[in-house]
Amino acid sequence: MEIWINPACSKCRSAITRLDAVGAEYTVRRYLEDVPSEDEIRAVLDRLGLEPWDITRTGEAVAEELGLAGWPREAEARGRWIAALSAHPKLIQRPIITADDGSAVVARSEEAVSEALSRGQG
């Protein structure tokens, strides 16, 4: 199990606290420092069953600078969104937990963290 976090994020700290409370084994990835490649983002999106615009933090200043609000949300634009997420990892919604069973969740709630835990750790 791996969790992508920004240590400054309260939702990330809450998820870590929950994982620790149940003794879960996991690896922390500080994705702002260890930036995911476009291929890694594609793989996580597949595991999440989501599109890149679904995990984009559109309220970030860089989103406004890039004009993301006007970008098309369709298959043909998927690569452009993924490239933006890799180039500007601050845009990636957090925390993301990738479970050993091949699934993943955006763990912004205690319920989502519990869902990741229920999927097993391998």
UniProtKB/TrEMBL annotation:
Family statement drawn from the similarity comment of this UniProt entry: Belongs to the ArsC family.
Listed Pfam families: ArsC (PF03960)
Species this protein is from: Streptomyces palmae
Protein name: Arsenate reductase family protein
Highest taxon listed in the record's lineage: Bacteria
Cross-referenced InterPro entries: Arsenate_reductase-like, Thioredoxin-like_sf
